[in-house]
Amino acid sequence: MKNNLLKVALAQISPVWLNKEKTIEKIEKSILEAAKENCELIVFGEALLPGYPFWTSLTNASEWNSKKQKEIHAHYIRNSVTIEKGELDSICSLAKEHNIAIYLGIMERAQNRGGHSLYASLVYVNEEGIIKSVHRKLQPTYDERLTWAPGDGNGLQVHPLKEFTLGGLNCWENWMPLPRTALYGLGENLHIAVWPGSDHNTKDITRFIARESRSFVISVSSLMAKSDFPEEVPHYNTIVKDAPEVLANGGSCIASPDGEWLVAPVINKEGLIIETLDFNRVLEERQNFDVVGHYSRPDVTKLNVNRERQSTVSYDD
Hints:
6-stranded mixed β-sheet; alpha/beta
């Protein structure tokens, strides 16, 4: 395939909810399916591994010192990912074997923060199977704050893939103008937006970012139905008692650099959404607007970005 063309796969799948090992198996299956279609990039939704904390809105998660909430949270921690222990190694090996780059949303147990708090992290694995960035979500949204910690700017990175420059953000931080600008300033022209699910998140912002940045924008969401809650999860009956039949309906989509749909939001359909992107479209749309280039005024407004990985303790040994 020509260097200006990039074949991408959007993996709109459901997790095996709060089961790390089985969800990894499902992710690996999707990677293999994408590789058979000669895809060069595959993207998975926010917090897919091991799943979004849907229980918080269903079980009065703000109840102080609740034993029930502590038990569910502990289960969540146990099924989250410690990168330093090699828990993404099998995924990295598939990336290398099949020459496919991967964006994957995980719940991260960050070792440099003690290994007990959780971060909604977007991991980029390049086509050589190397983890090149781990972006911890800057600001968890609403009830996410009951179970996720706020991240830092270290993962505001971009990555080359053929003629494209890729960058990504998690869910509602895509609405934050300054993190978007931080990626634009690094030359981003293919923006990856990952979501827990539902077209009400993706149907407006995807096209807006594309039109603002004159870049391709890929939004990838997961699926989640009431029937996907496994009975072995602590307090299963409480979680499902008032759960709707559909908690996340997908809505994965692709917008072109002119802000029009290349793939409109796909609803309630599990599987891969495959499309080929043409880098020339980026160059065409930058002719009349380039948000950090000829249509910017750095003498008037300028952004300063702190990309230091934050940690409570540093050691001099």
